[in-house]
Design brief:
By secondary structure, the protein is α+β, with helices and mostly antiparallel strands. Helix content is 22%, strand content 29%.
Length: 351
């Protein structure tokens, strides 16, 4: 028994059991581990890619909602306080900047009113001028006893003014002036306004826009939708019409791929208030402005996630047709991004 236990064969077998894994076994284990790591990394990368795509799409959607809501709120109020045929299609001199045409909503007003962007990529976006008053006063204005040049006016009936309200000085012919009330005693017929700017035109009526009228210019600057308030700044200053000057042109949202609008017009011989046609033809008379009773608006935003392959096979569309999301042909890889398109039709209720 002792000789058998101490034999060379038994000693070799014991050492073999104590020697551990062989080199081949270790290499096989490493290969299996590496395969597992590669699979896990691929799953992780795929999951992160989908997460970025989903997050970027949600950001684009939320941005479009915010921007469209901002514009819709302004357009819904447009024309408040001055939607009267004797005022529409006139120019009005604001405290800041050049005279602007007075209308609830103007698509692509003259370049002197809203300068276009200097970048070719922004050329296909529309520019909007939205105007409204902040008063609940009567929309027909206050007649004067006789044509007066101000700054002291006598009304035919007691007004509803407070110091600081802005009044449209309406002469027999355009242009119009916007002046703040400097003195008024409730229940009386006399109202005083600031004499600047001076005028020799005789006013026949005053229209009250309240203390917070707005003349808002919306434009796309370098792919960012911006807004400028004419009551605060000269939005017609071409030298300041850049995204860099955010004190004048305040950003609303980034990554705007398309911004388009159309007038909704009543074309029946006897106006019935029903929109019959949509186009971008700006009305040229007060009667045609009264027929523009809605605005169709579309906003398309671009996801910030750049995909490795084309994910948008055809250009997004709206009721007018295809939207140019290629930044006026300057973005050749536009198909590598995802887009969110939001379209709405807004009634111009004050018309």
């Amino acid at each position: 028994m002792n000789n058998l236990h101490n034999s060379p064969t038994a000693a070799f077998s014991a050492r073999r059991r104590e020697s551990g894994f062989s080199l081949i076994e270790i290499l096989v284990g490493l290969v299996i581990g590496l395969i597992g790591i590669v699979v896990m990394m691929q799953v992780y990368a795929l999951s992160e890619g989908r997460k970025r795509t989903t997050t970027a799409g949600s950001d684009a959607q939320n941005s479009a909602f915010i921007a469209l809501d901002t514009i819709q709120r302004a357009v819904t109020q447009s024309g408040a306080g001055f939607a009267h045929t004797r005022l529409l299609n006139c120019n009005i001199q604001l405290p800041n900047g050049n005279p602007i045409p007075l209308a609830p909503v103007i698509i692509n007003p003259p370049d002197t009113v809203i300068p276009p962007s200097t970048l070719p990529a922004d050329a296909n976006h529309v520019r909007l001028l939205v105007s409204y008053g902040g008063s609940n006063d009567q929309p027909d204005g206050y007649n004067l006893f006789a044509p007066m040049t101000g700054p002291n006016y006598t009304l035919t009936s007691a007004g509803s003014f407070t110091v600081g309200d802005w009044l449209i000085h309406a002469p027999a012919a355009c242009p119009l002036l916007l002046r703040p009330v400097t003195n008024y005693v409730a229940g009386t017929l006399a109202v005083d306004v600031n004499a600047n700017p001076s005028t020799t035109d005789s006013a026949t009526a005053l229209f009250n826009l309240g203390a917070t009228p707005r003349f808002l210019a919306f434009a796309v600057r370098n792919g960012t939708l911006t807004v400028c308030d004419y009551m605060v700044n000269n939005c017609g200053d071409a030298s300041a019409a850049t995204l860099a000057n955010q004190n004048i042109w305040r950003p609303i949202i980034n990554n705007v791929a398309a911004f388009q609008a159309q007038y909704g017009r009543d074309t029946t011989a006897s106006m019935d208030g029903i929109v019959d046609a949509f186009d971008q033809t700006t009305p040229t008379t007060a009667c045609l402005w009264a027929r523009a009773s809605a605005l169709r608006l579309v906003l398309a935003t671009r996801s910030v996630q750049y995909e490795k392959e084309n994910v948008t096979l055809v250009a997004p569309v709206w009721r007018r047709g295809s939207l140019d999301v290629s930044d006026n042909g300057t973005r050749g890889d536009w198909q590598r991004y995802r887009y969110r398109v939001f379209e709405t039709q807004i009634p111009l209720r004050n018309i």
